[in-house]
Amino acid sequence: MIISFVKKHKGRVIFYGILLFIILASLWSWIPVTERISLDLVPGECIPVRIVLITDLHSCRYGREQSSLIRRVEKEAPDIILLGGDIFDDKLGDENAKYFVEAMSNEYPCFYVTGNHEFWSERVPEIKEYLTDLGVTVLAGDCSSITINGVTLDICGVDDPTRMTNAGWREQLDAAYEASDDTHVRILLSHRPELTDIYEQYDFDLICAGHAHAGQIRIPFINRGLYAPNQGAMAEYVSGIYELSNGSIMEVGRGLARESTPAPRFFNHPEVVVIDLY
Q1: DSSP code per residue over 86-113
Q2: Which of 228, 203, 214, 220 is nearest to 32 (CA)?
Q3: Cα distance between the two ends of the chain
Q4: Rounded to whole angstroms, what are the CA distances from 62 to 78, 203, 220?
Q5: Are 86 and 255 in contact (CB under 8 A)?
Q6: 196-235 residue pLDDT tens
Q7: Model pTM?
Q8: Which run of H or of E encompasses 156?
Q9: Within the chain, where are the H helices?
Q10: What are the residue ranges spanned by the domains of the chain?
Q11: Topology of domain 31-277, per CATH?
């Protein structure tokens, strides 16, 4: 009976089978993961320094008062947290973002740069003031040094260039880089991953970015995104580690955006990135 039904309604069965696959794959892709990487960037032997990179939260919800996301981060016992832009959103309310950053800033040194959606919200000064009052280091053409386990990190950061001229954005990048020390581990926190031709002109050890959302629909096995902002179709810099031509390492976080996006994530889990420097 089943076989005859399938034969009689073959087209309909195929259609609903594909639809079911898309729904299940999208639900599976909704589940967050923790991505762990280790980088040999510290001369000599040292106790590893653990960084958690959070990008593109877009004020999305992860449990009551962000409890599941907070537990996921606390489980990793980071030394510092990097907030790589679009933590807040231009359409969703701030409540979820605030639950998260308030919890994190109470426990860990946090460093933040803006993303494009924060500029689109027209509330960047307000957001920066709020974060500064929490004790978060807001970087906009600045460099902040922190020593952990005997290792000094220079955390440099730039605003997202959405509302800036190219020259203005380069001035920020130049100022941040010039304030860093080549005897320290130099880290650049920048929302944009696609600006590799510019990053390659500097000597950062590590660049941490987001923005691409892994192309929203991530193509398995080849680590490309179907489409990413400012990169277009078959986007290259969407997820994970990339070695640039000057030897800098760039880590692109997939971000944590879920209900803020018009299209569902597909083969693309939202992620918390854990980076161990040794």
Answers
A1: -SS-SSS-SHHHHHHHHHHHHHS-EEE-
A2: 214
A3: 63
A4: 19, 36, 25
A5: yes
A6: 999 999 999 999 999 999 998 888 789 999 999 999 999 9
A7: 0.90
A8: strand 151-157
A9: 2-8, 10-29, 67-75, 95-107, 116-120, 124-134, 166-178, 196-199
A10: 31-277
A11: Purple Acid Phosphatase; chain A, domain 2 (3.60.21)
